[in-house]
Amino acid sequence: MTAAARPFEAATGDGPLVRGTERAAAVRIAFDGLLNIRRVMGTSGPAEWERRNPLRAVALALEASGIEPSAVDGGGTRCATGYRASAADGDRVVRVEWLGPPGSGAEYTANEALRRCAEALRTLGWVALEYRGPRRHHYLEVEPAG
Fold this sequence. Notes:
This protein starts with 20 loop residues before the first helix and ends with a strand. The strands form two sheets. The protein has a four-stranded antiparallel sheet with strand order 3-4-6-5. Strands 1-2 form a two-stranded antiparallel sheet. The protein is 37% helix and 21% strand. By secondary structure, it is α+β, with helices and mostly antiparallel strands.
């Protein structure tokens, strides 16, 4: 299957490294489509599709905001620093972490990076609350407002 024939998937940070002009164009088209759904539905916050698919919607919002996703190589080893979005407790909640390869120092930049993630999501109608887990690991829990 060619790249053009593959369906678009927002980068969650658990897949291969995704960069380049083709990727940027695909993200822009997908995000414009999402904003158009909001416009047609008459909502400024997350539309019904986003509420039913919060992981995909949050990952798309982060990537469209210019925030780099993390990535893993073919062996499952983290190879890029960035956000990682994953399902949290419940169907409506997404956990956003800032991760990088061992020795990358991602944990030292996590607080500021997560604040950027939270701000990008809040401007799009998501509630993003910051938490601290074991070993002072910071993360966000994100869900649709209202």
